[in-house]
Design brief:
The protein is an alpha/beta fold and 191 residues long. The protein has two domains: 34 residues; 125 residues, Oxidized Rhodanese, domain 1 (3-Layer(aba) Sandwich), CATH 3.40.250.10. The chain has five helices and nine strands. The strands form three sheets. It has a five-stranded parallel beta sheet with strand order 1-8-7-2-6. The chain has a two-stranded antiparallel ribbon with strand order 3-4. It is globular.
Amino acid sequence: MPRLATALNGHVSGCLSACLLSLALALPTAQADDAPLFSADGYRLTQYRSPTPPSVEHATTLDTPALQALLKREPRTRLVDVYRRTFLNGQFVEDEKHRNLPGSLWLANTGNGVLEPQWQAYFADNLARLTEGDARRALVFYCRSDCWLSWNAIRRAHALGYSSLYWYRDGIDAWEQAGLPLQDAQPQPLP
């Protein structure tokens, strides 16, 4: 009987150790899930590919027919793709092929919730060049459907003083589903 008790005690102890190890491994994940979704100044920080609200403050939300009508009515409208791209050692890494709406400027990573100064300058400088310094020039921001990156970029463009802002909320996915052409894209280089 003492042998059985010792064996059972060893088995329970082993199971308990395994359970505690599993719990310890799970805790960092649980803590990461508790990270705030938004910064103090209102930018989305995580889970960029998740359901988005129907609108964003300071912008008009567009569906595909409304975007086509805007482009026809206001041909000086500028399209800005903010889809993310891996950036290592001062260069964008082509980890996947990307296609966007014809005539777009791809300002990769500028929809992130926090921008380091070099990325903020990249965003501001490219918007100034794209609009020829006209803060009233219509700008349409997009990425993919259920993507907070373009939502963040609109807020950031508004903070820079741009006033004619549009959000193509369903982005590349909706354009493609409508059978409209896409172009191969490369991000605007970071100086």
